[in-house]
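Q: Okay, next protein. This is Radical SAM protein from Thermococcus argininiproducens. I've checked the sequence twice, so it should be correct. Can you predict the 3D structure?
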Amino acid sequence: MTPTLKRDAWERKCQNYHLSFSDLPQNLRETSPEELVELALRKGDNGLCASFNEPTTLYTYLLDLFALGKKKGLYNCLVTNGYFTPRALRRLIENGASGFSIDIKGCPEMKVLGTIDNKKIFRNAREAIKLGAHVEMIYLAVTNTNDFEECYRWIFKKHAELLGEDTPLHINRYYPMNYWKEKETPVERLLMLKEVAQREYNLNYVYIGNIGSIKHETTYCPKCGEKLIIRSAYRVLTWRLTKDNKCPKCGTKIPIYGEFNPF
């Protein structure tokens, strides 16, 4: 596949295509890791996150940035496709990467945009957990593309087997973007996917994103059903965990990373 065709294919599917393929602004300048960490500390932030463009395209920059951020007490996370070698993953974590939001695009039955091996994404997610990082998985359910039964059951099965029932899974709604014109994922289908993941594969922390539903962004105690963390988009509205991250009603330990830091 030529670069032009590959670029066109990604543009057709990705809602953030304009970030990767637009012309560079004239006033761009390089920001050093030192400047970025200093800015985060000055603004009162408690962490750094590499996102939108695939962060591994900035791999060597992130090694320096995360090492410096770690020294200054900042957490470091990536929103990533999770497609890298085990050695590259280990170096990221050794240099301070503490959290990964990893997209699982599909299953072995589908070959979209090349020959990506989805099994390697689960391999890397599992290895990150073993190395002590916090991992959450993202499944964007795209209408008539990766939402068929064989595919979602493979995703849920591998998630349960390799990552465990306590690793969060976000099932996100797809919307048409750019040239990709399939209809947005029906909410009823997303609800079905969540129910299958919870009831048939025993996943404890399953969320639905991109539908504006506080109910489906809330963390519930897997034992007693108590509401523990109520969210709205990027905001935490209510935090009811005890200081040692237990359910206040039944005492179940909730495997959450970090702490609540109200603005």
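A: Here is a summary of the prediction. The first strand starts at residue 47 and ends at 50. Helices lie at 3-13, 17-21, 33-42, 59-71, 86-94, 118-130, 149-163, 187-199.
Q: Noted. On to the next one.
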